[in-house]
Amino acid sequence: MADETIEALAPVDGFVAEVLVAPAPEAAIVPGPPTLRAPVDPAALDTLFRHARSHYAWRDTPVDDVKLRELFEILRMGPTSANCSPARFLFLRTQWAKERLKPMLSVGNRPGTMAAPVVVIVAHDPHFYHMMWRLYPRDDAKAWFADNPPFAEETAFRNGTLQGAYLIMAARAVGLDAGPMSGFDNARVDAEFLADRGWKSNFLVALGHGDAAALPAQPPRLSFDEACVLL
Predict the structure, then answer these.
(1) Of 69, 85, 207, whose CA–CA distance to 135 is shortest?
(2) CATH number, domain at 87?
(3) What are the residues facing 122 on neighbouring strands?
């Protein structure tokens, strides 16, 4: 992949089907403050977790490419194993691009997905290790994966999933709502959108400004004692 932050595919019938967001130059990464940190403001916790919901109905408010760049600049800073960063993201933000996706969606997912301003195919690159020379220069990390395809695939899937979760949280942090979903034909999505890059799809995330009036009551969560063990 090229080093540009955004690489747009050639327009088709006046539309640009996909935007691929890749890492910005390392010089853009600014070291953070010391390790000891104060807790975030309670309002931020509300935005990111406590009052956040998965949305599948959307207001007719566009999401521009600047916002997608901002989102990516946040999510790319989340930790991955040896900084491997295997996730790849296709942002489908034209009707033409979403129409290509529609036949691959489960019937129940089609209305909300097609109404969303942006739909992200969260994918991973099985050959992510070709970038390890730059992402993890302290060691020959490429060698850990290049001759061990099962380990490479396990690493790519786990860390790509983790980065997909970062995308959801980053979307909320920049003022967007997210609707993550499975319920689609991965093999057909791979063939239609990813085959020429060798990437593999994981899940989808609809992005935009959700219609809160369409939300059902929030379902319960497990308690600490049901989900956690202290040893």
Answers:
(1) 85
(2) 3.40.109.10
(3) 89, 203
